[in-house]
Write a structure and sequence with these properties.
With about 55 residues, the protein is mainly β. The chain contains one helix and five strands; from the N terminus they run αβββββ. The protein has one domain (about 5-50): N-terminal domain of TfIIb, CATH 2.20.25. Strands 1, 2, 3, 4 and 5 form a five-stranded antiparallel sheet that branches. It starts with a helix and ends with a strand.
Length: about 55
Amino acid sequence: MDADLLQVLACPRCKGGLTYNALSQSLDCMGCKLHYLVKEGIPMLLVEEAQPF
């Protein structure tokens, strides 16, 4: 995941920062405890599709 892109992306629920998880291929919000999957390099930032961790 591009570091510059990570700096501008935010959790759609709480607007907090996201961290890239290479193992699960997801962007993780530590505040909401949600995984947002990255499919074919595209972050799926829909709260309805996020998975709790």
